[in-house]
Each structure stands twice: as structure tokens, then as C-alpha cells.
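tool_call: predict_structure(chain=1)
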Amino acid sequence: MDRRSVLRGGLIATGGTAVALLAGGPAAALVRADRPRLTHGVQSGDVTAREAVVWARADRPSRMLVELSGRPDFRNARTIKGPVLTPDTDLTGKTLLRGLPPGEELHYRVRLADLDGRLTSAPVPGRLRTAPRRPQDIRFVWSGDLAGQGWGIAPEFGGYRIFKAMGALDPDFFLCSGDLVYSDGPLAETVKLPDGRIWRNIVTAEKAKVAETLPEYRGQFRYNLQDANLQAFNARVPTIYQWDDHETVNNWYPGEILDLPQYTEKRVDVLASHARRAMFEYTPVRTARSGRLYRKISYGPLLDVFVLDMRTYKSPNDANNSPTQKDGLLGAEQTAWLKRELRHSTATWKVIANDLPLGLVVPDGTAQEAAAQGDNGAPLGREREIADLLSYAKRHRVRNMVWLTADVHYTAAHYYDPSKAAFSDFDPFWEFVSGPLNAGAFGPNTLDGTFGPQLKFVQAPPHANTSPAEGFQFFGEVDINARSQVLTVRLRSLDGTALHTQALTPIR
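tool_result:
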């Protein structure tokens, strides 16, 4: 079907029910002052050539309605009937749009209808671009870490202003590399900066303590969505969401029992279940019924995005030096899925979103948090899982892998060179690091020589926990040229200034 036939005939909503509501239906119902209201803007995500997810939250139980058009004036729009938003999901809901036209800019707006269908909310508009079927220029941005280390929404400093810089590039989508909330990071109302200025946080009840209950985890997501810059960005740019540790608690792994006085609930598995549910409720993530977070987003013939989950299957943090360990970040099932999908991918570029960096040493006290442990030798511990994956990719001629991450709160470009590595059974590849969005800046971290990473660029703050007021907030941009198929990475600063540019030519 082409764009006109889809928009003329209506779309398919979640659950597979076909709808084509008349112009005089719920979207045109009686409007009064006591009508429902959308509370935190709109979001879209996991957009492919034919499908997209649209998210919203209501102030009361009501039905979600999504109007869709190829025109910004919504002429000849059709309405997709979404779910009823109830307190069971904290009044959040998602509508799956199917049968979309590929390679098109589409406009949507969300309304809420009360449960008797008589009153509707004011509409909140949004926009998305579907993935192309034929080679087409692609641009996206990535980063992570929002409201960490005590730096929340400070209106006097412009709020989350990095989203203005990212939005100015008009990207096709945003890859959020994790730590999109800091559930373990309470905020104080004021923080004194080194130059004497005062950073004044907006503080809600949920952000005044660590999150332990489901309502408190939900409150972490509601907090960030108060920011006007983020709301405006969400309405214009679809997002691919990934989680890391701070959605739950710092450096967590399954089965961990906390030894932290600020937590009454010590079982990390309980905290992680609350965090996972809150994330599914508050983001436009589309996953299988199993609730898994790792997934592949196909964005046309030039790009597949592989979103990894390095938390759910993580081994306990220890010295990370076992000579026999088989996995520790991805787990057997996810590793098998990734190998299979990489081998079968026909996209020119395979972008792998790894929420933990491959070659950077990330300490957790005296233990190790990520893959590397700093010995520069043969693969040990979790490095063995990465070595197995890289060898598999070489053996099966998986070309043009680029790894994108955040996590360490600075920006860098790493070239992994087997000729300089302790373990060399892999093809050369690049890993780019960029963040934070709005959090304390740190780094740089030590590079481990196991896979031969060469530092090609780095920018980090002069001291630990540098505030967003001092800059050192970063994001990355990726451009793929449809004609040449060259992928260009730009590491950008808080205001969007390009700090480093790396053009990569694909291996045919």
C-alpha cells in the first residue's frame, strides 16, 4: 500500500483491530472545561518502515486516540483507537501504528476521550519519520545519563538544554544509551557551584529519596518529562530506548543484595522488577510479550540498530579475571540472538548500542563493572564473551559494525586494532562514546589493551562531577550518505559544536 491508501483507509491499532473512525467520531466530541488532559507530552519510538509506537499519559482514566496524517494541518486525517489508560499503568499507554508508508514524514496528534466518549482533551501534536525501503540519507543522535549526580532540572540554567541542540539537527531518531533516569540519585533543592553560583533543582517527592517502590520508580520518569526541552524534543524525534544501571541502582546485577543504608528494600531483583515495569510504562518501547529489552530496529537498507541489554543477564561484579567464564554481560540466549541477527543482516551498517563500553575499565569499588579489567592481556572474565562474539563476526564476514555507548560521562573515539591487541581474532572496528545529557561529568577512564583500542579523540572535564553549568555535556551524531554509503560520526558539545568528526567508508 502507498501513503494515500493507508491514510485513506485507516490503520491498525494495538491488538490488530482495524479502525477507520468518521470525522464526527470521538475526536470531534463535545469539549468542556472538565475534559481529560495529557500530562507529559507525547513520544514516539521503535519506528521502522511500517510501524511505530506512540506514547501518552492522562490525568484520569480515558481512551487514547491517535490522529495520523501525511500533512501538518491534519487534513484527511484518520483516527487510530488506542488503549484505555488506567491507574494500573499509572495512566500511561501506547498505541502501535501498523501499515505505515515507508520513508515518509508523518504527523500525529493524541487526544484523550473520557470513558463515556462525550469529552475529549485538547490535542498534543507530534511528528515521526518512517524508515525508508530504498537507500536514503539517515541522521540520528545518541547519548545517555539524565539527571545524575545531583544535577536535575534547573530552570535558571535552561533546563535540559542539550535537547535543543540535538533537535536543531533534525534527526530521524534518538538512540538513548541508558541511564535515562537516576532512580538512585536524590536531588537537593540547591547546590553551590565552584564559582559561587547556585544551581536550583526542581525537586519532587519521588526525587527527594532513592526509589524503592513502583510508585517511586514511576516518579523518576515523570520528573524528567516535566522539562519543556525534553517534551518538545520527544514530540519531534522518535526514540530508541535502552537501559543501563541507574534506572534501578548503581552498578547492579541480578541477585545482588545491597549493603546501602539508604535502602530499606535490599533485594536488587525486587528493585529491578519495579524499574523494568516503570520503564515499559513510560517509554515507547515495543518488545515481545516476554518483556525482553534487546531487539533489532531495521532502518532501511543502510542501517540496522542492535539494542543490547547488558543488565538483565549480567554476572556478579568481581575481579573479572576468570579464565573459563563463558558469558557475563549478554547471556547465552541474547548472544545467540545477536550472532544470528548479525549474520543475517543485509544492512550496510550494523550499529550496536552497548550500554557498557567494551574497552574502558569501569571500576565498582575493588570489583569491575564492565567487560574490561585493565590487565591488557588475553581475554578473561566477561572479555571472553566479547572475544567470542568478535571472532564469530569475523568468521562469518559480518562487516561494518560500529559500537555506540555512553555510561562514562565524557566523549571519545576508539579504534579497535587487532594488530595492536593481545587478542587479535577479529576485524577492526570503531566504538564511540558520548554523554552525559544532564549529569555530572567524569573521566577519562583507562583503556584495556585486550582488543587493541586506540584513543583517537577524547574530551573530558577537569575534575570529577563537573556540573552541566560548566559544559562537558556531550552527544553524538551519525550521518549515513545514501549515495556513497559513508557513515560519518560527529562528537558534539552541549551547544551542538562539533568536536571531532570521523568518516567511515563501508567494506563491500
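agent: The chain has seven helices and 24 strands. Proceeding to next step.
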